[in-house]
Batch of 2 targets.
Target 1
Amino acid sequence: MTLKQTVCLFLCIYTTPILATETQADDLFTLSFEDLLEVHVDIASKTLETLASAPSTITVFNRKKIALLGVNNAFELMNFVPGMQSTRGDWVGAVPKDHARGVYLDSGNILVMINGERLNESSFGKASVYMPFIPVEVIDKVEFIRGPGSALYGSNAFLGVMNIITKSQDNELSVAVGNVGQASTAFSLSHQVNEQTHLFANGAYNSKSGERYPQGVKDPLQSIYLEAGLDIEKLAVRGRYNQVELNDFLNLGGYSEDNQHKSENAFISLSYDWLATDTSMFSSKVAYTQHQIQSAGLIAPVESLPQASYDSFIGPAWQTSDLTINLDASHEFDNGWLFNSGLEYSHAKQQQADVRTNYYDANSGAIIAADPFYQGGIVTIKEYAPFQQLQSTFETRSIYGQVKVPYSEQFSLFLGARFDDVKDIDSNLSPRIAAIYKPALAHTLKLQYGESFRTPVTNELYSNDDVTLGNPNLKSEYVKTTELVWRYEHQDWHINSVLFYNQLNEFINLVPLTADNTQFTFANQLDDTNRGLELDSMLRLNGDFSLEATYTQYFDTPMQPTFKRFASIIANYQYEQWLLSVNGVWRDEVNVQATPNTLSFKQPAYLLLGTVLSWQFSTSSQLSFKAHNVLNKHYNVFDPRMADGAVAGVGSEYSVHYQVKF
């Protein structure tokens, strides 16, 4: 059965009984300022809190705000979060690469979750390698922790946490077309079978042929996302499948029309609420995820290979799995104290570590770029000897606890810690403390301290190819973060300011092994401090116009050359059934001086403008026009492994979207 037939079957099954029932559509234009301020989050503490009362620095995007930004991929939301940016890098150029609080490395320093389930895995650590495109059409809300999160979530919750919450109560269908070959369709379905049983499903298909770049390549995309859920009283079953192809553009530092990258993810979980009362909760969950990639990038053009007639490509054909078992409990005492605790067992395994290449000598088991060993194209070599050590297992046992102490209506204290023991690697204790004080109704002060860590992954420990050589002696990297927060809330205005101080220790960095920067290894070589200021604000000038802005300023030079200052702005104006939203992302200059082994890189400051124009012509349907990089600004982002340091940014993209609710 084709994807198109599957979608049609889903629609026929679910919409037949629903279309006969009148439903209330979620009006895009009902922009409640109070709702944005009082939005509830549980990512920061596993207790229901508001942005003001949460013991972390939080940024939240609900579905209305996401629609007004005009983004296509969940990772693009980072550009509107203080302290975070998302750009493209050199490993696979179209895979998002994170910048977080002055740290720009490709090692998974932000934990990414879907509905509380981690996407970061054990081979690369970075969620976006295996799941680089998460369509916004299926998203209900995205929550960000800016800063440490290991006290609740363990490894990778290092400089931030991103939790994507998908739709489960909607019946809607959307289609879109645009320039550079953009085409997409998505659906969300929900059906209440009876009082005890609820079904839901989400699906999306996105594709584009991409724009043409001076290097002679495009940046095409093809993505499929399918998700389903079943709730029967206290039992919840969830399943998810995702496939993404990002070929052509840039892979392992080389541009080529023959570059390949395909990732697949399959997920299933089963959870049960054994106890659920007004004061107590006890639940269990078993989840299994399988990640797979097949990738190959240009590492040597034919003109540099005297004995070869074709370019040389190499890349991983890897598969990993994660089995996780969780027990979570909470209890609220008569005095208002709230205690959360949990146990977690995780078994992460790299099951496959093959190589993709177009040159291979079967007799020696080596990759030799010479005509006698040409394979006729890129093929998968099974049981490639230099990769076999990658097939390792990470077994982690964790325990966490947290208590919320509401001393008064004005003052609350959060105390918590998590202990993670990673077998044969190391163990880490991640404490946290947050004091929250409201000296007046409109003002909130927070003093927060937390520690986080990131365990090295198999690629850092055991890789062995023409690009990277692993270091089995690596230790976990960790960070100690102190934050001082002031939040002001008024009926028509709020502002949030954060001063943070990071102490970075045993940081794992990519270190060149060769003078020409063609091969690298990993080392715990960096101890550094990073301080900065993050601001975000929202102003409603009248019932029809609102303005939002963010600004980030680092006081110290970033560890890798990244943006030391950046900002965003969003302006929304409503007129009857029309809504216009204009947004901008501004980034300061990046200037990297030449060294004996690298060229200099300079990118002046630049501004990327986007816009969304929406017309709601009925209570259940709307038409939207979205534009990214309206002025077609040509810019590069820095990546240290590129010969010239430059990775090309995305040009203008325009699309028209139609959505109907039923």
Target 2
Amino acid sequence: MAAEQPAAADKKVKSDTSEDNTLLIIKQQNNGLSELDTPAAVSIVNGDDVRDSKPQVNLSESLTAVPGLQVQNRQNYSQDLQLSVRGFGSSSTYGVSGVRIYVDGIPATMPDGQGQTSNIDLSSVDKIEVLRGPFSALYGNASGGVVNVETQSGTQPTTLTAGTYFGSYGSFRNSVKASGATGDGTHAGDVNYEISASRFTTQGFRDHSSARKNLGNGKLGVRLDDRSTLTLMFNSVSVDAGDPGGLTESEWKANPSQSPRADQYNTNKSIDQTQVGLRYQREMTDNDQLSIMTYKGERHTTQYQSIPLSAQLNPAHSGGVIVLERRYQGIDTRWTHNDQIGSVPFTVIGGLDYETMTERRQGFENYNVVDGYTEYGVKGDQRRNEKNTMWNLDPYLQTSWKLTPRWTLDAGVRYSTVSFDSKDYYITQGNGDDSGSTRYHKALPMGSLSYALTPAWNLYASAGRGFETPTINQLSYRPDGASGLNINLKPSTSNTVEFGSKTRIGYGLLTAAVFQTDTDNDLAVATSSGGRTSYVNAGKTRRRGLELSLDQQFASDWRLRMAWTLLDATYRNDVCGTSSCSAADVTPAGNKLPGIARNSAYASLGWAPPEGFHAGTDIRYMSDIQANDDNTAQAPAYTIVSANAGYRLNWRSNWSLDLFTRVDNLFDRHYVGSVIVNESNGRYFEPAPGRNWGGGATLTYTFE
């Protein structure tokens, strides 16, 4: 977690700074977002920490220092990272669920709650805010937390940057970036811009895990007049990646790099996504501000799976090739009013958020039979054809009251409506009509009371309700294998109570948070086999935890970061995911939730002067992780160490060069990077690489 420096705490946010619809907006507008003053478990990672001596490929490189957040690199670019907050999202078989992700105010999470991180350009990141606990309820359809990414806005002078990285397994990343501005942003006609592009390729640690990723990102801001700004945002990403799949325990121990089924079925995935957003902000009066954010995007996905012929002979099976076309758009309109009653200043925010997505989902056989010979890994006959439509409409109201110089009250409520409709166009003998629709409603209140013991020490207590609907994929299949949507799935509802303390120690920050989250109708994996994962409401679950972090800068150029998370996540009642519910099928109350580490810890020490040699090392510990509800299979605990060193050179006031090298998994530990929860064939394990190395350079030229 990046410690906030005193100068940053007093810094006012510029009018074109990206904002999102939570009570954190109040903190941004009044004081600049502050880890110390915000009455919530929030961690801020600044862009320099994201890029410093790192490949700049995955969020897993820089978010491991955030307590309460578990981010696992699957070593599988076709399935994205496995990211969870306080245990929510740990059972996602691909992508991110249970956690809302935003990039410059544009949701990277669809209305159904399914998100992805592939479009985040790490070379352009200004900061990443990770919000955990009750405040995250005000983002709507997310139970665990929020990851909010803000990219840089151009400033004077004009700067050109070129970067390169190369490492083990034939990995290369090359990038370019240009940023600048005309004027200082305070006069009509002033323009700022930042444009970046990158290409990443790798052969992959595992067999059949090569990947190619092209990414472009742009932001253009214009000062329209002395009271309003307009910001245009553009993002495009293209990914082609092999899918090595999971391994059984015996396969993992025998050869972690193998992929015994991928070559036969040519498992792979291609993604193409383009989106554009427009944000208008205006100061209507000295006390009132209007913000309108609108966006539109398209995402195309084709995936080849390792599903055997025997499974696809079932006429109700959807095949081994998935083709998706998604179109999404939304608008968030918000009014902010600052005022004072007597000696009590307050802020009120009211808004309306609307998001919609239309998905055309098709399925095809992944084989052809010619002259009695079966060829896999090719697109065959159609087996699925449906149109899914989702939308959500969420009015929200937020307020913050400075009751006394020491006491602050924050409160808010969001009323979330999520609608899902599916029309089935593939109806044959043995494959019935899978059409259906459902709608969910939930009021999401929260409140927080904070007390400043001293200007450098704050205490807070907060409570709130979270809400997580089933995603389109979770609704797609029924546990009993019958036709039709899994329409009996209910949204999960979580009630969280949290207490926290934040203390500034010199140029550092010490934070602590203790929480309990009780969830009704939690979503859990019922079966995962033949490329199809079905879900069930698990009844009641409980998550209790403690999060500690320290970010301390000392002796001018030294920095120490430490984080520890204790998370006890268990079922509170017996759970059955099958239609028979025999004794062997029941998960007993008290079992641990799969995919979640009970203990995780991180520590790093770095020496980073502005120029010359720099170096650092970090250590990460993860306790064992249950791979299934029965708690009969586990990914063992592990501890890994990484080290980096480099040299920064500045000359002629215009040029700067940063060279670095790093070694990850320094002691060559044999461990599992992530697990596929409840995989019915016992292929739970996605191995992590052994000792691997990398190096890179960043060259910057500034026009003076």
